[in-house]
Every structure is written in structure tokens, then in C-alpha cells.
Specification:
Largest sheet: none
Number of strands: 0
Structural class: mainly alpha
Distance between the termini: 14 Å
Order of helices and strands: HHHHHH
């Protein structure tokens, strides 16, 4: 079940009290499983982008770098780094935009006691958006000015993003997951 298929249920919304089940629902489990899948993709891609940035910074042997790039289906390290960083940043921005507009309001309505957790998630989304923009800017600068300092800036931006993002994903899964799994619709 995709995000778009879970949105369709929101059009047939009965009273708010009926939104949350006492037990896990098929719809809620599917929503939570999809959240975990998207978070897994975010974690995996973050690891790939960080690894490539650190390898370029460390002066990875060009032949080894070419093998890695071929595996990632591209032609040059700086282009790969920029494209992966920018693609990754857009993906995470889109995921958080969806959460902010589609299901966080439903979680807040379904379980008002989660309002502080939803507020924290909203704040973390804003902070991570800044971090993503910093990564994108550093990657763009690197393609314009390939120097040690610009390479180091990419790695630093990615490491800062990783720290914030990984903590956020874990918090969101642990705090909102139990309620997500009990939602009848969003």
C-alpha cells in the first residue's frame, strides 16, 4: 500500500472518535510499515552519501572510486556526490512535507496526548530542513570549487545532518509508531 492509497481513506472520515482503534488496524499497520520502509531508505541513502563524501575527502584511489561510481551508475565523483546529496535532500524534504500535511494532523486529532511529541517532530522537521539545505549548498559549492576545505564542508554538513536525522527517525518511530499502528484512517 503506497502513501497515495492511504490518503484516499481520509475522504471518508467519520467522527474523530472513530479514528483510533484500541488495537492495531490493518490500515494503521500498513501506514507504520511504510513509514519504517521510508525511514530505512533514508538511513541507507544517508550512509551511501556519507561514505562517498568521506572517501572523496580521504583521496580515494581513482580506480576504486570509478568502481564505486559505476556501481552507483554515474560517471564522476563530484557529480555523483552533488546529485546524490541533492536527490537525497529533496527526498527527505518531500517525506517530511507529507508527514506534516497528511498524517501528523491525524495523529494529533486521534490522540491529543501526543501533541507535545507532534510539536517536537514538527520542530525537528524544520531543523532538519536547514541541515538538508546546508548539505545541498556544500555539495553545490564543491562542484564549483574542488578544494580540501569544500570537501571537508560536505562531510561536516552530512555528519551534522546524520546526527540530527537519525535521532529524529528513532524518536518518531518510537513515539508515534504505536498510535500510527492503531489508526483506522488518516
Amino acid at each position: 500500500m503506497g502513501w497515495s492509497s492511504t490518503l484516499g481513506a481520509a475522504q471518508h472520515t467519520p467522527g474523530i472518535g472513530a479514528q483510533l482503534s484500541n488495537t492495531e488496524t490493518e490500515q494503521g499497520k500498513a501506514l507504520y510499515d511504510e513509514l519504517l520502509w521510508v525511514h530505512g531508505v533514508i538511513r541507507r541513502d544517508l550512509n551511501t552519501v556519507q561514505r562517498l563524501a568521506e572517501a572523496v575527502l580521504a583521496g580515494l584511489d581513482p580506480i576504486d572510486l570509478q568502481h564505486e561510481l559505476k556501481r552507483l551508475e554515474t560517471t564522476g565523483p563530484l557529480w555523483q556526490l552533488k546529485v546524490n546529496c541533492l536527490r537525497y535532500c529533496r527526498f527527505v524534504h518531500g517525506h517530511h512535507d507529507f508527514e506534516d500535511t497528511a498524517w501528523l494532523p491525524s495523529v494529533r486529532r486521534a490522540d491529543p496526548s501526543l501533541a507535545p511529541a507532534v510539536e517536537r517532530v514538527d520542530e525537528e522537521h524544520r531543523r532538519i530542513a536547514v541541515r538538508l539545505d546546508e548539505v545541498a549548498a556544500a555539495a553545490t559549492t564543491l562542484t564549483e570549487l574542488d578544494e580540501g576545505d569544500t570537501r571537508a564542508a560536505v562531510v561536516e554538513a552530512l555528519n551534522t545532518l546524520a546526527d540530527d536525522l537519525l535521532e529524529h527517525l528513532a524518536y518518531e518511530e518510537l513515539t508515534l509508531g504505536p498510535t500510527l499502528r492503531r489508526l483506522r484512517y488518516i
